[in-house]
Amino acid sequence: MKKLNYLYEDGNHKWAVIARDPDKADYLIDTNEYLVMDGAEAMLTDPGGIEIFPAVFAAISAEFDPARITRLFASHQDPDIISSLALWLDYKPELRCYLSWLWGSFVPHFGGDDQTFISIPDEGMDIPLGGLTLRAVPAHYLHSSGNFQLYDAKARILFSGDVGAALPPPEEDMLFVRDFDRHIRHARGFHQRWMGSNEAKLDWCERAAAMDIDMMCPQHGSIYTGADVGRFINWFAELPVGTGVSRKAA
Amino acid sequence: MEAGEVIMERTRAHPDFHAVVLLNQEIRKIVGIAGGVYLSAMNAMLIAKRAGDSARGFSVVSRELQRFSNRLQDAMHLLNTRIFRLLMQVAELKKRERMHGHHIRAARAGERARDHLGRLLADQEAEIGQAGAEIGEAVSRLMTEIERAGTLCEMSIALSRAAKIEAVYGGERATALRQVAEGVETTIAEIITTLKGLNERLTGTGT
Ligand SMILES: [Fe+2]
Ligand SMILES: [Fe+2]
Asked: I need a surface site. Which of A45, A152, B21, B61 has the fewest CB within 10 A?
């Protein structure tokens, strides 16, 4: 069963993760959904696939009134990110979804219409939520060609989408990274295969290194905290990507 | 109509599941209030202990109150579990209905498509019917738990009144004891009212 865990609380300003579903079928990749709350409003990042909608919806409702969710944030167009869109809109038709302009006419294949999407330009944009101003941070080609992360400067939390994702075996699958060196072994193959551009990667690493980040929250696998955030950025900067396919196969 | 059928009718009649979400919100509210009874009962025990011999009667009653608050916590835990499951079931049903909707649209697109999809549509309808029936049963079980919690609270009202009476003999701590007893009584009354509201919503008379 999925469960909502609070990551950050400062009065009405909160971050929670809906993580880890041990009951989920093995053929589905496990995903983390994040709920950012401030005052009366909340935004759900990468709400997930259609198959896991019941688990996500029930886990949120157990702790929080889902009617308060006013916005969705889709980092990119993948099915594990946003294929549950139509089900969310069934529940609340007035929901708005932030999404890269690049995918504006692709994602409606999952649901929604010309009223649903708020288009994010390539350079990113500010996103108001309650009394907060969040930032859509460009991370194009990491891995999607129109890809955004979500930064909360007040909480110093970066929702990093597929960047930082890891696929650990169940016995090492923890909410937070405990042992960076152990953890990162399960991230290597993912980043080498899914991330396609070394240039885009270095550009992101430079920008990320200049940001104040206490917690880096990926859409798959454990959350990086404290010094592990910097460790990840350094590790990623040095990792050759776009190399996940062997020459023979090419 | 049975309470379960009302929710079932509603989830079928509406393309959304707001009824169950609202129910969940209200149950969470009651669970929160019930936590207050537990704290008050603990407080009553402490004050009674400090008051010593002069509050022996109160001490006995407050021990009973604590026993009640434990049972209430258990009842709330069960309510929580039930409503969580119900919510999952309803969300799952919505998912199935949406998939079914896509297939119906495909079947309407042409006779050939209808031939190919006929069997699937029938199976889906059966599954949706089954899921609806299970939701009905889940609602009935939930109703039973709500009624049980209500009865438990009604019984404990007498207990909190007894505590109020015993508080009078609490010597210099009488005021503190009375306040605690009154606090418990008010909280239980609030739970009873909310539970009644829930019952009305479930049987369809309240909305
Ligand atoms: Fe992806
Ligand atoms: Fe992903």
From this structure: B21
Task: Please give chain B's pLDDT, 207 residues, in tens.
Answer: 454 555 555 445 443 578 889 889 888 888 888 888 888 888 888 888 888 887 888 888 888 888 998 898 899 889 999 999 999 999 999 999 999 998 998 888 888 888 888 999 999 999 999 999 999 899 889 999 999 999 999 988 888 888 888 888 877 788 888 888 888 889 999 999 999 888 887 776 443
Q: How far is the CA of A127 from the centre of ligand 1 (A)?
A: 22
**Bridge partners (DSSP) listed for residue A9:** A14
DSSP B128-146: HHHHHHHHHHHHHHHHHHH
A6-51 pLDDT, tens digit each: 999 999 999 999 987 777 777 777 899 999 999 999 999 999 999 9
Among B16, B95, B97, the residue to mutate for chain A (most A Cβ within 10 A): B95
CA-to-CA distance for B167 and B175, rounded, in angstroms? 8
Upstream peptide bond of B14 is cis (omega within 30 degrees of 0):
no
Which residue in A32, A62, A29 sits closest to A44, CA to CA? A32
> Does the distance separating the beta carbons of A57 and B95 come in below 8 Å?
no
| Tokens read off for A178 | 């405990």
Domains with residue ranges and CATH for chain B: 3-200 (1.20.1270)
pTM, entire model: 0.85
Tokens in use for B84?
């969580």
B70 neighbors B189 (Cβ within 8 angstroms): no
Instruction: List the Cα angle B85/B86/B87 in 5-degree steps.
Output: 90
Residues of B with CB under 8 A from a CB of A: 15-18, 21, 24-25, 28, 80, 84, 87-89, 91-92, 94-95, 98
Residue A142 CA, ligand 1 centroid: distance in Å: 9
Rounded to the nearest whole angstrom, what is the distance from the C-alpha of residue B106 to the centroid of ligand 2?
Answer: 30
Q: Which of A50, A61, A90 sits opposite B21 (nearest CB)?
A: A61
DSSP per residue over B23-65, as a string? HHHHHHHHHHHHHHHHHHHHHHHHHHHHHGGGGHHHHHHHHHH
Contact A53 B91 (CB under 8 A): yes
Q: Looking at the predicted structure, is the pLDDT value of residue A96 above 90?
A: yes
H helices present in chain B, as ranges: 3-13, 18-51, 56-108, 111-167, 174-203
- ipTM reported for the complex surpasses 0.85: no
